Amino acid sequence: MDNKSVKSTSSDSRRPVSEWLLLGSGLALPVVAIALYGDYPLFALALLILIELCLLLGVMRLLGIRRTQRTLIRQLQKTLIGQRVTDPETGAALPGWFEQVLQTECRRAIREFTPLAVMQIDLKGGEPAQRDAVRTELSKMLTRELSRPGDLVGLTDTGMLQVLMPSTNEHCKHLAERFQTQAQLVRADSGVELRIAACVMQPGSDLSADKVNQQLLRLVDRLSAQPDGSIGFEVEQPANEIPTVTYSL
User: Cα separations (Å) of 180 from 69, 173, 195, 229?
Assistant: First the structure.
């Protein structure tokens, strides 16, 4: 047996101070009974006082351990809340997590030399509560429709919905048209306007999350002057780049 296992065994065998206090109090009770039976009242009284002190210290120690555990649980809960990656209302990925996944997929697209499609659903008009309700229903609808591994529905910093679809080419336009048709049912009589910007990015060496977001912003700005229900779609022209292959030993 190595030293680590010996240390682990010895450390596990040690009892907390509170357990020793309570154990000692229990063992002292027979001594008190013998002292009383043997006509030693002062000794028995001293032992009783000592037992009471041990019990009090043991209980206080256990209460302190309990408070410490509760504090650790609260800290752990706060940490888990801080690591949440999805919005509790819509179920969509939070902006920070969506941006991180988008950047990862951009690097994957370059490595595997495959296209990358991204859509943004722009909601305007209507009451804030109605927009929130439409956003939530659209997020759930998009999540049901997108079943491929890697597809992800997320939120922007401004509360708009984005859809990430790795390895998707010009068929993205048909998906946007289908989403638009289904969205008509979701936002019926809500007064909320909806426009969809969609783009297919080529796996060039400059592909990044910033480039994708800039492309979407240009499309969204262009669509803002278009009627409700408009779809903006662009396919980036493939560059004449040959993917580099790196071998490592």
Answer: 51, 11, 8, 7
E-strand ranges in 26-170 read 116-124, 152-155, 161-166
Q: Which two tokens stand for residue 7?
A: 């240390």
Report yes or no: 137 and 91 within 8 Å, Cβ to Cβ.
no
Q: Strand 116-124 to strand 161-166: parallel, antiparallel, or no bridges (unpaired)?
A: antiparallel
Under 8 Å CB-to-CB from 236, ≥6 apart: which residues? 199, 200, 201, 202, 204, 215
Helix (H) or strand (E) holding 21: helix 17-37
At residue 58, what are phi and psi to the nearest 5 degrees? -65, -45
pLDDT in tens, the chain (249 residues): 444 444 444 344 455 555 555 555 555 555 555 555 556 566 666 666 766 677 777 777 777 887 888 888 777 666 655 557 888 888 888 988 899 899 999 999 898 888 899 999 888 887 888 888 888 888 888 888 776 778 899 998 888 899 998 876 657 778 888 888 888 877 777 788 888 998 899 888 889 999 999 998 899 888 888 888 888 888 887 765 444 433 333
Task: Report DSSP letters for 60-86, one per residue.
Answer: HHHHHHHHHHHHHHHHHHHHHHHT--B
